[in-house]
TrEMBL record:
It holds the Pfam family MarR_2. This is DNA-binding MarR family transcriptional regulator. It comes from Micromonospora purpureochromogenes. Keywords: DNA-binding. Coiled coil: none annotated. Transmembrane segments: none annotated. PANTHER family: TRANSCRIPTIONAL REGULATOR, MARR FAMILY, TRANSCRIPTIONAL REGULATORY PROTEIN.
Length: 172
């Protein structure tokens, strides 16, 4: 059953096209995937505009934000950082080199394990991370301002249920 035009979104158009062309793929899975992807893209676009103004890439921001979220002393092992951000060790190393060159992070030897090291935010890194997180959050808040808070809460809770069902639970 079709929805009225005022209640349709871009995904409805995509699903309708597949319903005409290849009905077997016009599924709930397609709708979930497309809507999650589009929502993520809209939120990322809003945040990325602010990050670009701050001179940060999305990947650099993610490193700074992950470190800041750990609390003082704002540090993680490089492998923990890579795992949290779903990055390769090579990709993480490249990011850390850039952030180190910009004075936002430093690498410290682990006094208990000579084979290991820590990545820690510098004072400038803490300031930059906090500024960037606030700017990205404000941009996303502005984008979502048209969505009733009760709707956002329900959607967030339902998405959590889906992610848990898929096994996306904390590892620590």
């Amino acid at each position: 059953m079709d929805k009225p035009d005022q209640g349709r979104d871009t995904v409805d158009e995509i699903v309708a096209a597949w319903q005409r062309e290849l009905p077997a793929v016009a599924t709930l899975e397609l709708e979930l995937t497309k809507r999650a992807t589009r929502l993520g893209a809209l939120l990322a676009e809003a945040a990325n505009r602010k990050l670009a103004e701050a001179g940060l890439t999305k990947a650099e921001y993610e490193v700074l934000a992950a470190l800041r979220a750990t609390g003082a002393p704002y540090r993680l092992r490089p492998t923990e950082l890579a795992n949290r951000l779903l990055l390769s060790s090579g990709g993480t190393s490249n990011l850390l080199r850039r952030l180190t060159a910009n004075g936002l992070v430093i690498r410290e030897a682990d006094s208990r394990d000579a084979r290991s090291s820590w990545v820690r935010l510098t004072d400038a890194g803490v300031t930059t991370a906090e500024t960037a997180v606030r700017a990205a959050t404000a941009a996303q808040r502005e984008l979502l301002a048209v969505v009733p808070e009760s709707t956002g809460r329900v959607v967030a809770d339902l998405l959590r249920e889906v992610l848990i069902a898929l096994g996306d639970t904390p590892t620590g």
